[in-house]
Amino acid sequence: MHMFGVVSRALFGYVKSGLLQDVDVWQGPLEEVTSKITAAIRACDQWILATTDLTTTDWPRTRWKGNYTDKQLTSLRKRLNDILAIRSVFEEIVALIGVTDYERFGLDRAFKGFNDVAVLNVGPFSEPQWKSATREFDRKLAPSEQHVAFVIKSRMFALAEHPQLLVGEFNKFKQLLLRPTVSAELEAEKETLLGQLIAFLEDLRAEFENRAYTKGKNFSEFISAIIWSHQLIDKVKQTSDIVNRVMANTTNLSVFQNTASDIQHQLQMFARQQHKSWQEEVLEALEDTRSDLVLKTDGDLMDLDMQNDGNLVVHYSQRLVTLTREIRQLSELGYKIPTKVEDAVNAGAKHYRYAVQLKGVANFYNTMTEQIIPSQMGMLLMEAQEFEKVVKNNSGTTWDRADEVAEYMAELTT
Fold first, then answer.
1. C-alpha–C-alpha distance, residues 172 and 401, integer Å
2. 166 contacts 199 by C-beta, under 8 angstroms
3. Per-residue pLDDT of the chain (414 residues; tens, 9 = 90+)
4. How many CB atoms lie within 10 A of CB 288?
5. DSSP 18
6. Rg, Å, the chain Cα set
7. pTM surpassing 0.85?
8. Closest CA to 364 of 318, 312, 407
9. Residue 297 contacts by C-beta under 8 Å, 6 or more apart in sequence?
10. Count of alpha carbons within 13 Å of 102, Cβ hemisphere only?
11. Whole-angstrom Cα distance, residue 120 to residue 17?
């Protein structure tokens, strides 16, 4: 326990004298204050979580009487949260009040009660002073709260037919909407909006059931479906987050929550099934040595298909290019990629840059007659012949000869 106490004290001191030493939490730029306080909260959270895990899970429980909690660090974390909430609600009011009414509502004196309070000092002796200052802050804000409630009500009326835009408005003023006065004034509007959002969720359900997605240009059908389902999941989560935060006492909250939970579960199951199908298809293709997912590193980079249309063909599968993009996208979404698939992509990735360049060269060559006006064709005939000569002379250049590939590319593009 002594070790935990030492680290907790050190972290406490670092937050106060390091991270937040020169931060004016009341008058400093909001972005800077928010960034610094958020970083401090994150640091506290990481240590609190670490000590909880160590004393309840990782180490034998017989050595501990419950999980370790540093009361001072926990109090500091709560204080930081409170400061952030106070500063945020003030800024939200200012955004709605405007410059002309700033002094009329006494907002220039809103933080006066904190002048003599060392806000980062936490403990039983400093708590009464902190509570007194927050009560004074609440009193100073009271005259403006009725006014901003009316302003928000007007904005909600203007967006009545667009529930998603209303959610965005609620998100802008999420701290303000938790204030008792403002929340009470907007009770009817919140009930109306919740009904609209339940209908919005049902529209999302219908979109999902109709599989109303479009296959992406650079992705397979499975990946397109996964991306689409995650977009819908994000919409449900974003809507749920703000509803759960500011509509706690609305009549149909449980209806909304159940609907959101059900839709989100369906979408997650669908995404997992699509990922499984994609994985099975790719692994099966990798088992086949003739598959275009298996890069033949000892084969030519490209050649002229003289037996058919004479087009320039790059021997680097477009499916391998697509697979590289798909893996990147799936990783960003948190999916685990099988080692065999990663190995195949890594093998192809070594040559990906040159493959993309070669495909660009080949595409220009193959469509040259469509892009160049007839009067210029004669001028370019000699250059085209020289180009073809370079391709034929390098017919033995393969992907596994890195130096030769680089020289070949230089020769083609000069």
1. 57
2. no
3. 577 888 888 888 888 888 888 889 999 999 999 999 999 999 999 988 888 877 777 665 555 566 777 888 899 999 999 999 999 999 999 989 877 788 888 888 999 999 989 999 998 888 999 999 999 999 999 989 989 998 988 888 888 788 888 888 888 888 898 898 898 888 888 898 899 999 999 999 999 988 877 776 778 889 999 999 999 999 999 999 989 988 888 889 999 999 999 999 999 999 999 999 999 988 988 887 777 666 655 556 666 666 666 677 766 677 777 888 899 999 999 999 999 888 888 877 777 777 777 777 777 777 766 666 555 555 555 666 666 666 666 666 666 666 677 776 777 666
4. 10
5. I
6. 31
7. no
8. 312
9. 347, 351, 398, 399, 400
10. 10
11. 10
Q: Are 222 and 277 in contact (CB under 8 A)?
A: yes
- Can you read off the two tokens belonging to residue 298? 């000892």
* Helix, strand or coil, per DSSP, at residue 312: strand
Under 8 Å between Cβ of 271 and 230:
yes
Residue 98 region by backbone torsions, left for phi larger than 0, else alpha for psi between -120 and 50, else beta: left
Q: Are 76 and 123 in contact (CB under 8 A)?
A: no
Spatial contact of 152 and 144, defined as CB atoms under 8 Å apart: no
**Alpha-carbon dihedral angle through residues 138, 175, 261, 210, given to the nearest 10 degrees:** 150
Show Cβ contacts of residue 126 under 8 Å, excluding neighbours closer than 6 positions.
117, 118
Interaxial angle between packed helices 187-209 and 253-287, expressed in degrees from 0 to 180 and rounded to the nearest 10: 30
Which structure tokens are listed for 261?
Answer: 């939970």
- Amino acid code (one letter) for 37: I
Report the Cα 390 to chain-centroid distance in Å: 47
List the one residue out of 213, 260, 203, 197 whose CA is nearest residue 234: 260
Rounded distance between C-alpha atoms, residue 206 and residue 414, angstroms? 55
The torsion of the CA quartet 390, 391, 394, 398, rounded to 10 degrees, works out to 150
3-state secondary structure of 314: strand
